[in-house]
Specification:
- This is ABC transporter permease.
- By secondary structure, the chain is mainly alpha-helical.
- About 75% of the residues lie in helices and about 0% in strands.
- Helix 1 packs parallel to helix 5, helix 3 packs antiparallel against helix 6 and helix 8 runs antiparallel to helix 9.
- It is flat and about 70 Å long.
């Protein structure tokens, strides 16, 4: 006999230990300060923007799409592992209580997304529809919580279906219905929203009837889905700390390799310069993260009106990029044969410091171009001079000490 409650406690404890282990690295003091500054500045300019909100701004569609997405995206975390396909499959009918707790956990854990999006969109909704008031918006959030349950149960029943096309069609139909419901609710059209809600209930009941026709759970599908979500979490965590569970992929990117790496001189003291550059370009982690930080930073600089906040954002994203790229130093630490290289340790340190300096200066150059397009010569000078000075000081006074 399998004690489903005890098995859940054990599996849940393992899961929380694993995730909390990486979360403490993700939300470290450096990222915390940066996020606090970014969110504070974003909230300030969001409030300023709402004061001059255009009358034709598509608030209804934003509310409908956002609420429709958070209700439709309702995955169920089962915390299953590959060995469970062998050892738990025979006891499937003894695990009813385990899977019920999985549903409870999945729902509770996703509530924070509803609260965050609701809090973020609330001021926009009140500015666009002041006549409907806070009570109407709170009632919409209540509807979100209810429809979220229906979608999660429907998704759980559809996990018995092995045909991916049928699962995709089910998701598309429910997404359209979810968005339509909140499109009408955002306007206060409760009658039309009720009609569409009846259609959604019909789809949910239909998925339940389909699941009743299936003999048992698709265990391989449950394990695959859970592993996909953990891989996503590991990829995010890998931006901040080395994750041994994550299998890194390597991409050719021949054009970038020829443009950057092939220019490295073929000399002994350039060994690690070649290694770090080709790792940065071809690894699945660094280049993508570097580009994303540049894009997010560029958007923040472009849309913020205050000059000094623009410059502060430029320095902030230079700091974030350099801080994340520092993990290049430890990327190859588990490869023993690198220790056989007849190269000096100071060459290795010099190579990583030079490369970090180069990518920070390149990012500074790109941020400065934004001020040229906006014809802001003072901002251009401040970012290019300030970014260059910050890059040098950060590399020499922080990164260099961390390597020793």
């Amino acid at each position: 006999m399998i004690n489903a409650k005890e098995f859940w406690r054990k599996r849940f404890s393992e899961h929380t230990k694993e995730t909390s282990r990486y979360l403490k690295y993700i939300f470290n003091e450096h990222i915390g300060v940066a996020l606090l500054f970014f969110i504070s500045a974003l909230a300030y300019y969001y409030r300023q923007w709402l004061q001059d909100l255009p009358e034709d701004f598509p608030t209804i569609w934003i509310i409908a799409l956002a609420f429709g997405f958070i209700t439709g995206y309702s995955p169920v975390r089962t915390l299953l592992k590959e060995p469970d396909l062998v050892f738990l499959l025979p006891g499937e009918y003894q695990l009813g209580d385990y899977f019920r707790r999985c549903l409870y956990y999945s729902y509770v854990v996703q509530l924070y997304v509803i609260l965050l999006i609701s809090a973020a969109l609330g001021p926009l909704y009140f500015a666009s529809y002041p006549e409907l008031g806070t009570r109407h918006y709170l009632m919409m959030i209540g509807v979100v919580l209810i429809i979220k349950i229906w979608n999660m149960m429907s998704n759980w029943w559809m996990l018995k279906e092995r045909n991916p096309r049928i699962r995709l069609m089910d998701q598309v139909i429910k997404a359209v219905l979810n968005i339509t419901i909140f499109y009408f609710l955002a306007q206060g059209e409760w009658v039309y929203a009720s009609v569409v809600t009846v259609l959604l209930v019909g789809v949910v009941l239909y998925t339940y009837s389909l699941s009743r026709q299936k003999a048992g759970l698709a265990w391989d599908l449950l394990v695959e889905k859970d592993q996909q979500r953990m891989r996503t979490f590991y990829r995010i965590a890998n931006m901040f700390v080395d994750v041994p569970h994550l299998k890194n992929t390597v991409k050719k990117r021949n054009t970038l390799v020829r443009a950057i790496v092939d220019r490295v001189p073929y000399r002994q003291n350039q060994t690690f310069s070649y290694l770090y550059k080709i790792t940065f370009i071809r690894s699945s982690d660094y280049l993508g993260m570097y580009i994303r930080l540049i894009v997010i930073g560029a958007l923040a600089i472009w849309f913020v009106s205050n000059l000094w906040v623009k410059v502060a954002f430029a320095i902030l994203f230079l700091y974030l990029s350099a801080f994340q790229m520092m993990t290049l130093w430890n990327h190859h630490r588990t490869i023993a044969w690198l220790d056989l290289y007849p190269v000096k340790k100071e060459w290795k340190e010099k190579a990583i410091l030079q490369w970090l300096q180069q990518i920070m200066l390149f990012q500074t150059f790109l941020f400065g171009l934004l001020f040229i397009f906006q014809w802001n010569p003072i901002g251009l000078v401040l970012v290019w001079v300030g970014g260059s000075i910050f890059s040098y000081l950060f590399i020499q006074n922080y990164v260099k000490k961390k390597l020793t």
